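Q: Structure tokens for this one, please.
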Amino acid sequence: MKNVILVLPSYELPAKGGPQISVRNLIKAVSKNCNVHAYIMAPKNMIGGKDAINYLKKYCSSISWSTSSIIKSYYNINNKPRLFGVIRIIDAVRLIFLAIKHKTKIIWFDRAEELIPEFIYMVKGIWPHCITICDTCAIYSEFILRELQFAEDFRKDGIIQSAQKKSHQEIILTNMCNVVTAVSERDATFR
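A: Here is the predicted structure, written as tokens:
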């Protein structure tokens, strides 16, 4: 079986909704055909305790925590952009070392729209030989725009800007990754 590094920007057990359920299903599905090595970027104190860890142990060959997930458990680094950028570089290098350690070139980014495209770009820039799979909803920007018809006038500009930013990220992600999984027929034809 092939080794795959599965990057999880969010992971919670018990699942609170669709995104968390899709993460669990992805772990289970990929583990049927691959040795999954989980690389978790969610804060350790936010995933759901022992049950969440035991679920990962059931389906994953190894579990690793990103530097940012460990630091986020103790400090709020989101308010410190410069520090956060440095830690993301460390996360990217650590991810590549894990891939080399587990003798794989395949890095699967779950819920890639939650990661900043710059992080995936860093990984590809540092290690251009890796094969990246982005599991994402490529039309998330359209989902954001659905709110427009119900929004108050003062919020409409913010919604449009948010959708434009997300659309730009979607284009970058779909062009940067070797494979983009399709959640819907619309996603499949996005490129």
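A few notes: Strands lie at 2-8, 34-40, 62-65, 106-110, 131-135, 179-181. Residues 139-176+187-191 form one domain.
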